[in-house]
Amino acid sequence: MFVILTYDVGEKRVNKVRKHLKKYLIWTQNSVFEGEITDGKLKKCLSELNHILNREEDSLYVYEVKSPKFITKTIYGQEKNIDELFL
Amino acid sequence: MDRDYYIFSNGRLKRKDNTIYFIDSQDNKNSIPVEQTNSLHIFGEVDLNTKLLNYLPKYGVILNFYNYYGYYSGTYYPRKKNVSGFTVVKQALHNFDYNKRLFLAKSFIDSAVHHILRNMRRHKEDIKELIEKIELERLNIERANRIDELMGIEGRIRKYYYQSFNWILRDDFTIERREKRPPKDPVNALISFGNSLMYTAVLSEIYKTQLDPTISYLHEPSTKRFSLSLDIAEIFKPLIVDSVIFYLINNRIITLENFDDQDGICFLNEQGRKKFIREYEKKMSTTIKHRKLKRKVSYKMFIRLECYKLIKHFIGDEVYKPLKAWW
């Protein structure tokens, strides 16, 4: 499953959320992550995030695409992070 | 989704923000998601510290190291968690009993030959004689009574098989005979590089099961090597590595420019290795619908399934039937 995850959280928690998501997904832009992930791992990730987020103020959007085949990604301008097999 | 990452640049690998960071010599920072990482393959000159080495095992991430020439030199493994004395004892007993050992050795070779012929069949017209020779040798497998006899048969089959490469591959690539340590021509270099990737892949799958990688059947279980991974790799070498080689050469993806020659030793340069690995990874994650499991299974998973089948065989659950590609 391919996931795009965006968040808008209080300034205090931005870094915490970013650091947490880095363990699971690939950072694409400020407050945007994407990548392939299994259902189970996504659940685990979100339940851990639940401890960080403040439900009253913060928002988190998760876009799921069942197959990465159905998504095309075009980048205009600078590509910020290149996810590569090789480093 | 567990991915492998290949590090070719020089730099530093460290734990930061509770995930893996790679900082290359130009100070570019790259973060790697730990939860999605299966193993890291390190080809470049990389510094790392104990903080990272203490952190990786928590997530079961494996570090594979390769030397300057791209040969496998070793692995840093997490503490083995899947241990089962019962399975290991049974596994050892199957080595101790010569007939049981012979059965498994025959199974491995039979499957390897099946995949070898499968590769050759596409070029049936030109190499009819070689195919016939191999099919004749194949009949001897059933009759063999000793392991070394079996090894001899395998050696001869391999010889015919490598001869057929001259027809299968494009004109500018030829092979006279298989030469390891060191490979002297491009085709040998490709086979060696591919096989060493295969061994590490099989070994890391074995580590996920209860099997002991040192107790083997076809290869003599000796000290200093994980010979069970050599046994199982036998099945997958023609199925995965060789077909990647054919694809790369015949589609002119890898050309003679991708090889370096140093004092008669031929090896892939960095560009070549990257091309090879990209195709190899693609192949490994290709899925095929499994007939019994009724779901899609990747080539990588097929390796693990082979280990499970062996365990079932050892504990007397189900007789081992080696993988024979049906697709």
Main sheet attributes: strand count, strand direction, barrel closure of chain A: 4 strands, antiparallel
CATH architecture of chain A: 2-Layer Sandwich
Q: What is the total tally of β strands of chain A?
A: 4
Largest beta sheet: strand ordering of chain B: 1-5-7-8
Oligomer type: heterodimer
Rg calc of chain B? 20 Å
Taken together, the total number of domains of chain B comes to 2
Spatial strand sequence of the major β-sheet of chain A: 2-3-1-4
Amount of beta strand of chain A: 25-35%
**Could you name the CATH class of chain A?**
Alpha Beta
Query: In the CATH scheme, what's the topology name of chain A?
Result: Alpha-Beta Plaits
Shape of chain B: globular
Q: What is the total domain count of chain A?
A: 1
Radius of gyration of chain A: 13 Å
Question: What is the element layout, followed by pairings?
Answer:
The complex is a heterodimer of chains A (87) and B (327).
Chain A: E1 2-8, H1 11-22, E2 26-29, E3 32-36, H2 39-52, E4 59-65
Antiparallel strand pairs in A: 1-3, 1-4, 2-3
Helix pairs in contact in A: 1-2
Chain B: E1 3-7, E2 11-16, E3 19-24, E4 29-32, E5 37-42, E6 46-48, H1 50-55, E7 62-66, E8 72-76, H2 85-96, H3 98-120, H4 128-143, H5 147-168, H6 186-206, H7 227-250, E9 259-262, E10 265-268, H8 270-284, E11 287-289, E12 296-298, H9 299-314
Parallel strand pairs in B: 1-5, 2-6, 5-7
Antiparallel strand pairs in B: 2-3, 3-4, 7-8, 9-10, 11-12
Helix pairs in contact in B: 3-4, 3-5, 3-7, 4-5, 6-7, 6-9, 7-8
Keywords (chain B): Antiviral defense, Coiled coil, DNA-binding, Endonuclease, Hydrolase, Magnesium, Manganese, Metal-binding, Nuclease
Subunit structure (chain B): Homodimer, forms a heterotetramer with a Cas2 homodimer.
Coiled coil (chain B): 113-147
